[in-house]
Write a structure and sequence with these properties.
about 425 residues, alpha/beta, binds uracil, single chain, 13 strands
C-alpha cells in the first residue's frame, strides 16, 4: 500500500477502505508517513468529506493507536461526560459529585484550558494541593472507594489524534465535521467508559457557532458511539453567553460549590440536571428523566453531593475544608465594577470575548507554557435579557493588575450590547439526541 495512492483516491472523491485508513493512522503515528502527506490527506478529506464508514474506521484506528483504558476493575456502569468547550464551563466540578452521590461512578480524564476556553484540571487546582497525577491503579481505586476520580490525559491515550489534531491546527483542516467527531470520540472510546454523554455547545463562545452545525456534530458523534457499541447521548446547550455568572478558575469553583449548596445560577443548574439525568438513565440508575432529576435534587438537598466533592478533593491531595469554606479559595487583590454606559436591556454578551477578558486578566493560557492566575476572572451581574440602569455594574472584574483590569474592562464593554427592547428568548437546552 502507498500513501500516495490513498491521497489520490481521496482527492478524486473515492471512499477509503478500513485497511487504507489503518495504514495511514499506524504509519503516521509511528512517524513513517511524513507531515506533508498527512496534511495533503487532511485537505482532501476537508474538501471531499468522509462517509459514515470512513469516519468510524478513522475513529477506531485513532482510539487503538495507544492505550485502551480498561475500567473493568470499577464496579457498575461507567458513564463519561464530555463538553466541546466553552466559557464559564465548570460543569464537571458540580456534576461529577451529583452523579456519584446517586450511585454512578465517574472515572474521567480531563484537560487543561487553552485560548478563551478553560479546562477542568486548572479549575480543580484552585483547591490547594489538588493533583490529577494519579496512577491508573490509584485512579480505579479512588473511583471504587468514593465514586469519582479525575486524571489528566495520558500521553498514550489516542496518540494518533494528538499528532493529527496538532497538524490540522496549523493546516486549516480543523473544521471538518468527520474529523472533529472522530477526534473527540477516539479519545472518549480509548478512555474506557461504557456510556458517553456529550455536551455539545453552540453559540458565540463555542466551537460550533451555528446550531445546525452543533446538531450535525452531535449526530455524527452519537452515530460513532453507537457503531462502536457504546451508549452515546448528546445534549446541545447554549454557549452564546457565558455559562452561569462566573468566568475564571477559582471563581468558577466557587459557583460550582454554590450550586451543590442549591444556590446555583439557573442556566448552570439546568445544565447539570439535564446532563446528570442522561447520565443516570445511561447508567441504569433511573428509568425516566423525572425520576433522575428527583434523585439529583435530593443529592443536593441532603448535602451528599457536596460531601462527595469534599471526599474527591481530599482523595486527590486537596484541602477539602475549602469545599465548606470557599472564602479560602485564591482571591484577587482588586475587584472592579464595569458600569453600564446606558440604560436598557442587555441584548448580547459576545461569549468568546468574555473568555478573552479572563485571558487578559491572567486566568487563561495563550500558549501551552503560560502560567495561569487562578484567582482572576469576571463575575457577571447581568445576563442577556436583563434590564440594567446606566452606572449599574454589568460585571465585576477580579484582577491582580490595574492595567490588565482596564484593558479587560474596555474589551468587556465592547462585548456587550444594550438595546431599548428585550431580545427574543431562546431555549437554553436546544436538543437531546440519542
Ligand atoms: N476538539 C477535539 O478534541 N478535536 C477536534 O478536532 C476539535 C475539538
Amino acid at each position: 500500500m502507498r500513501m500516495y495512492d490513498i491521497i489520490l483516491k481521496k482527492r478524486n472523491g473515492g471512499e477509503l477502505t478500513g485497511e487504507e485508513i489503518d495504514f495511514f493512522v499506524e504509519g503516521y503515528t509511528k512517524g513513517e508517513i511524513p507531515d506533508y502527506q498527512a496534511s495533503a490527506l487532511m485537505m482532501a478529506v476537508y474538501f471531499r468529506k468522509m462517509t459514515e464508514g470512513e469516519t468510524l474506521a478513522l475513529t477506531m484506528a485513532m482510539a487503538h493507536s495507544g492505550d485502551m483504558l480498561d475500567l473493568s476493575g470499577i464496579r457498575g456502569v461507567k458513564v463519561d461526560k464530555h463538553s466541546t468547550g466553552g466559557v464559564g464551563d465548570k460543569t464537571s466540578i458540580a456534576l461529577a459529585p451529583m452523579v456519584a452521590a446517586c450511585g454512578i461512578p465517574v472515572a474521567k480524564m480531563s484537560g487543561r484550558g487553552l485560548g478563551h476556553t478553560g479546562g477542568t484540571i486548572d479549575k480543580l487546582e484552585s483547591f490547594p494541593g489538588f493533583s490529577t497525577g494519579l496512577s491508573k491503579s490509584q485512579f480505579i481505586e479512588n473511583v471504587n472507594r468514593i465514586g469519582i476520580a479525575i486524571m489528566g490525559q495520558t500521553a498514550d491515550l489516542a496518540p494518533a489524534d494528538k499528532k493529527l489534531y496538532a497538524l490540522r491546527d496549523v493546516t486549516a483542516t480543523v473544521d471538518n465535521m468527520s474529523l472533529i467527531a472522530s477526534s473527540i470520540m477516539s479519545k472518549k472510546l480509548a478512555a474506557g467508559a461504557d456510556a458517553i454523554v456529550l455536551d455539545v455547545k453552540t453559540g458565540s463562545g463555542a466551537f460550533m457557532k451555528a446550531e445546525d452545525d452543533a446538531r450535525a456534530l452531535a449526530e455524527e458523534m452519537v452515530k460513532i458511539g453507537k457503531n462502536a457499541g457504546r451508549r452515546t447521548i448528546a445534549v446541545i446547550s447554549d454557549m452564546d453567553q457565558p455559562l452561569g455568572f462566573a468566568v475564571g478558575n477559582a471563581l468558577e469553583v466557587r459557583e460550582a460549590i454554590d450550586t451543590l449548596n442549591g444556590r446555583g445560577p439557573e442556566d448552570f443548574t439546568k445544565l447539570c440536571m439535564t446532563l446528570g439525568s442522561q447520565m443516570l438513565l445511561a447508567g441504569g440508575r433511573a428509568g425516566s428523566v423525572e425520576e433522575a432529576e428527583g434523585l439529583l435534587k435530593e443529592a443536593v438537598k441532603d448535602g451528599s453531593a457536596l460531601s462527595r466533592l469534599a471526599d474527591f478533593v481530599e482523595a486527590q491531595g486537596g484541602d477539602s475544608s475549602v469545599v465548606y469554606h470557599p472564602e479560602k479559595l485564591p482571591r484577587a487583590s482588586v475587584v472592579l465594577p464595569v458600569a453600564a454606559p446606558v440604560s436598557g436591556f442587555v441584548s448580547r454578551i459576545a461569549c468568546d470575548e468574555v473568555g478573552v477578558c479572563s485571558l487578559i486578566l491572567g486566568g487563561g493560557r495563550e500558549t501551552k507554557e503560560s502560567v495561569i492566575d487562578l484567582s482572576v476572572g469576571l463575575v457577571l451581574q447581568k445576563k442577556t435579557g436583563d434590564y440594567v440602569r446606566a452606572g449599574e455594574p454589568l460585571a465585576f472584574l477580579h484582577a491582580n493588575d490595574e492595567g490588565k483590569a482596564r484593558e479587560a474592562e474596555k474589551r468587556f464593554l465592547a462585548a456587550c450590547s444594550i438595546a431599548d427592547a428585550a431580545p427574543e428568548k431562546t431555549p437554553f437546552i436546544k436538543a437531546v439526541i440519542s
